[in-house]
Amino acid sequence: xxxxxxxxxxxxxDQRLPHQKNPNQVVPLTELEEIGVLYxxxxxxxxxxxxxxxxxxETRGYSYMDYLELxxxxxxxxxxxxxxxxxxxxxxxxxxxxxxxxxxxxxxRGKDDRWIRIWIKEGDMIVLPAGxxxxxxLDTSNYVKLMRLFVGEPVWTAYNRPQEDHPARQxxxxxxxxxxxxxxxxx
Length: 187
What we know:
With about 190 residues, the protein is an alpha+beta fold. Helix content is about 20%, strand content about 30%.
């Protein structure tokens, strides 16, 4: 199963809709890699015990892991949390998410500052680099169970846009301009 990504159509409609342009403008994995987004497709039935996941965790230094189940009835202040996740922001660290069940959208800013929508489904694992502008929402299924991975202790601090002076943003832009490589090849 391949990751699906496309250039988003700007719209005020429900954020959980696909918002694909007509015709759809597919964004290939190579373009996501150019902006620092890494992707793997893993076997979600193995979760923590899968060899490939263990290799990724070891190579990239992901020492902490927890789970987030996001849907109405499972999360206090569900609608408010979803709105917060959908605010454009950056983090000082990578954002690593492995979709175990359900589906949702990560939107990231491309090189030209346009929104690229990435549809993650069961088995998809993505890494968003520190400093990339992004946001998250569920799709119309209104359910996702994610494994969240961190280097060291978990940090969830979001810095809402604009953050051009934040060190993580400056580092991201510098790496983007220098087109630096990635630490572990994704697929």
